[in-house]
Amino acid sequence: MKTFEFEHATTVEGAVDRVVATGGKYYAGGTNLLDLMKGGVEAPTALVDVRRLGLRDVTATESGGVLIGSGVTNSALANHPLIRSRYPVLSQAILSGATTQLRNMATAGGNLMQRTRCPYFMETAFAQCNKRNPGSGCAAKDGFNREHALFGASESCVAIHPSDMAVALAILDATVHVHGPDGRRDVPIAEFFRLPGDEPQRDNTLRTAEFIVGIELPPSPFAEHSWYLKVRDRHSYAFALVSVAAGLRVEDGVISAAAVALGGVAPMPWRVAEAEAGLIGQPPTVAVFRAAAERIMAGAQPLGQNGFKVDLGKHSVVRAMSTALRVT
Ligand code: SF4
């Protein structure tokens, strides 16, 4: 690992100033960034520690939603009474990720900032990776791509985003509060991540020296009926092959609100608006869920080794929706 400066920031503005001045990176839980630095994937000249900025609260908002400080740990967030009661799908998603030790260190902001675990990205011995070394090629496209994207990939990169939390935030229509040299701005979660296109080195739409200070959730119609299903190679400490966050509301015997997001299949949580719209007014039956699953997976573009994820995705969508509504 290369040597680097380490500074503690005490104000949000001060943190931004120091990252602008040093060209460094923000440091919170460090659970992904330090791994990348040890492996030589990241080599910042400075780390600006944002753990003393007082961004560790989960508070109810006047609108009936919740504001999550970006420094709240994954453990604290998943177990917070406001999250467990109003947004159980978020709690489930967070608890399905990593390990207790990692969740005790990792933060809400860092969860969204974590980078892909594509093996060619994580290991500098591989020469080809456009995300790590722009212009070098993509070794995964014709190589090991069992865990890679079905949707949203490009010729330059076929990696997925690894966050479970982001998938739940997608169906909850979260807003990401960010702060940077031009002050504060709010980014809808649907616009926070970006597809790789020909710039796969950019995972999100943050501008230079911006960082996440909070995540706001509006009131949710899905507190009663939601589910996070994560399918993976082993039951613990593994990233999703496919995951599904499903939220449904039923009134007078028909579905009145629906949101479904997939993880493990795209560079961002993947929602298909037409499939969600097609659920409205339908009775909550397995046949209706199957039709929705077909629509969601219709645009899948499998690679050489991940074709199995198409059927897996369909079954997972049906299972998540059925479990959310306790329909068999
Ligand atoms: Fe790199 Fe993306 Fe290709 Fe993986 S899929 S090797 S991260 S460019």
- Which cofactor or ligand species appear? iron/sulfur cluster
Q: Can you give the helix content as a percent range?
A: 25-40%
Q: So what's the CATH class of one domain?
A: Alpha Beta
Second rung of CATH, namely the architecture of one domain: 2-Layer Sandwich
Number of strands: 11
Strand order of the largest sheet: 4-5-8-6-7
CATH superfamily of one domain: CO dehydrogenase flavoprotein, C-terminal domain
Kindly report how far apart the N and C termini lie. 53 Å
Number of helices: 12
CATH fold-level topology of one domain: Enolase-like, domain 1
DSSP strand content = 15-25%
**Low-confidence segments, ≥5 residues, pLDDT <50?**
none
Radius of gyration: 20 Å
Give an account of the 3D structure:
The protein has helices at 12-22, 33-38, 74-78, 81-86, 88-95, 100-105, 108-113, 119-122, 165-171, 273-279, 286-297, 308-325, and strands at 5-8, 25-27, 46-49, 58-60, 66-69, 175-180, 183-188, 211-217, 226-231, 242-251, 254-263. The longest helix has 18 residues, at 308-325. Strand 4 (58-60) and strand 5 (66-69) form a beta hairpin. The chain has a 5-stranded antiparallel sheet. Strands 1-3-2 form a 3-stranded parallel sheet, with helices on one face. The model has no long low-confidence stretch (mean pLDDT 97). It is globular and about 60 Å long. With 328 residues, it is an alpha+beta fold. Among the domains are: 1-52, 2-Layer Sandwich (Uridine Diphospho-n-acetylenolpyruvylglucosamine Reductase, domain 2); 226-325, Enolase-like, domain 1, CATH 3.30.390. The structure holds iron/sulfur cluster. Iron/sulfur cluster binds next to helix 8.
